[in-house]
Design goal:
Order of helices and strands: HHEHEEHEEHEEH
Radius of gyration: 15 Å
Helix content: 25-40%
Distance between the termini: 16 Å
CATH topology: Chorismate lyase
Largest sheet: 7 strands, antiparallel
Shape: globular
CATH architecture: 3-Layer(aba) Sandwich
CATH class: Alpha Beta
Structural class: alpha+beta
Number of domains: 1
CATH superfamily: Chorismate lyase-like
Length: 166
């Protein structure tokens, strides 16, 4: 992994805060899709969901000056939308990272890293949603616990991110 990419992928802080710091007023969240879906097989396994279970899935692009730099996919089991977490379905263009890093009873597991391949379910899904190929790009995912309820967040780092950081 190139050092310029590793700096972003391996960071443990809020990507939202970091992007806001470098983009200022030009930072925006573009909602690509959200709604009830069947999670991808590896997402189900990660969250220990039954095959037929639906989850609230939100796909967004984190943009600077309207240019997508990171594409993120959040998978939230129905059971995680209780106990004070109902607002997760109502984020709109508000970044999920604001909520997760606000100290609202949040913790997370270790990061999982991967380089997306063309035949990966996630690469295909995000290619359709963001209108550009994401295979070959570095991604990370982590299970967060908000008020002790799990949700899976995957972030794909687009080449424009590193270009904008140089």
């Amino acid at each position: 992994m190139p050092e310029t990419v590793a700096d972003w992928v391996l960071g443990t802080g809020s990507l939202t805060a970091r992007l806001r710091g470098s983009c200022g007023q030009d930072f925006a969240v573009r909602v690509l899709s959200e709604g009830w879906q069947r999670p991808l097989p590896d997402e189900r396994a990660c969250l220990r969901l039954h095959r037929q279970r639906l989850a609230w899935v939100r796909e967004v692009a984190l943009c600077c000056d309207r240019q997508p730099l990171i594409v993120a996919r959040s998978v939230i089991p129905r059971s995680s939308l209780r106990a004070g977490n109902q607002a997760l379905r109502l984020l709109g263009t508000r970044p999920l990272g604001e909520l997760l890093f606000s100290g609202a009873g949040s913790r997370r597991e270790s990061l999982q890293l991967a380089r997306l391949r063309q035949n990966d379910d996630l690469a295909e899904r995000l290619r359709v949603q963001c209108g550009q190929p994401v295979d070959g790009q570095w991604a990370r995912r982590v299970v967060h616990y908000l008020r002790h309820k799990p949700l899976l967040v995957t972030e794909v780092f687009l080449p424009e991110l590193v270009e904008s950081d140089e």
